[in-house]
Design brief:
Layout: E1 2-8, H1 14-31, E2 35-45, E3 48-57, E4 62-69, H2 72-89, H3 91-100, E5 107-115, H4 119-123, E6 133-144, H5 146-156, E7 160-165, E8 171-176, E9 182-185
Helix pairs in contact: 1-2
Subcellular location: Cytoplasm
Family: Belongs to the HPF/YfiA ribosome-associated protein family. Long HPF subfamily.
Subunit structure: Associates exclusively with 100S ribosomes, which are dimers of 70S ribosomes.
Amino acid sequence: MRYTISGKHIDVGDALSTHVKTELGATIEKYSQRPTDAAVTFSKDAHQFMCDSVVHLSTGLNVAARGTDTDIYAAFEACREKMDKQLRRYKRRLKDHHKERPEPVVFGEAGSYVLAADEDAWESQDDSLQPIIIAEMQSRVPTLSVGDAVMQMELSGTPLLVFRNEKHGGVNVVHRRDDGNVGWIDPRGNG
């Protein structure tokens, strides 16, 4: 597994890097035999250290976790424990996912835009209703089943996931609702 261990305005020493590789490697190997790479980033906000970790699995799934503490090692351990809990919770589904999907998840390219939030800027545009695009990037859209999309959304800790439904090829969305349930948007056939 490839590791990228970095710090934002923090010098990450060899001892911490070795500790991260050893502990995170043991956690990931316990649940998944096919991790490809891990990115661990340490940062500091006042007296709190933060550890953000994202592990990419060969199946295309990403597992993300964050931990905070006043000690940098304790922040990493909190992050590692959250990741361990996520992987333990989904161990059976991940194993089934590997058996059903011999090939990695296919990703397609899609445009991603960030629109200006300032409504005054919109109103000053010669009465047109076109918003100001302040950022334009490429995003990757995975082709997944609905169950795998929900699992990916929960593992990555995001509130929303856009994916291509592997049954019919249409673009779908799963999202975390305010009531704690998961919503699924499938616009196919809703003419």
